[in-house]
Each structure stands twice: as structure tokens, then as C-alpha cells.
Amino acid sequence: MRNEEIKAELSALRAEVVALSEARKQAESEAAPHPSAIATSETETETDVEPEGVLSQVRELVELLEEELKETPVLSGLVIFSVGIIVGRFLR
Q1: Of 37, 63, 77, 88, whose CB is crowded by the most CB atoms within 10 A?
Q2: 39-75 burial by CB neighbour count: b if 16+ within 10 A, else e?
């Protein structure tokens, strides 16, 4: 390529960059949510949480853990716990 061709290519690329930058700015300004909409959605998600549902899930988890502890012999549980501690120490 000659010097003139390179300059023409460079100016075309610069114009394309400018056009793309303007299009991106315009798209961002159109897609930007209003601050009041953000605040509304945050308050909606906070009130959607049901404390009874969370408590029932915690109870189910505790019951499952109790069943697992009852089924697992004490000695093997201690061995697994000890191995977990040792591996945890080595991974630090």
C-alpha cells in the first residue's frame, strides 16, 4: 500500500470510530434507567422475601443434617472432619 492509501484507510477508520462512539453513547443514554425505577425495584425485591419460607428452608436443612449425622458412624465422621481440617490447612 502506498502512503496515500494508508492515510485514506486511517481517516476512514477514524470516522468509523467516531460514528460507533456516538452510537454507543446514544444507546447508553436511551437504555439508562431512571433513579426512581432503580429504587422501586430494590424495595420490591426486599419485600418479596418471605420470612416463613426462609425459616422452613432452614428447618429442612437442619433436619437433613441431623439425619446425615445419625446415619454416619461417629468414628468415620471424625476422620472425615480431620481430613477436611488438614486439607484446609494445606490449601492456605
Answers
A1: 77
A2: eeeeeeeeeeeeeeeeeeeeeeeeeeeeeeeeeeeee
Q: Alpha-carbon distance 24 to 18, whole Å? A: 10
Using alpha carbons, list the distances in angstroms from residue 19 to 5, 8, 16, 88, 90. Answer: 21, 17, 5, 54, 55
Q: If DSSP codes are grouped into helix, strand and coil, which group holds residue 1?
A: coil
Radius of gyration of the chain (CA): 30
Can you tell me whether residue 22 is helix, strand or coil? Answer: helix
pTM over 0.90: no
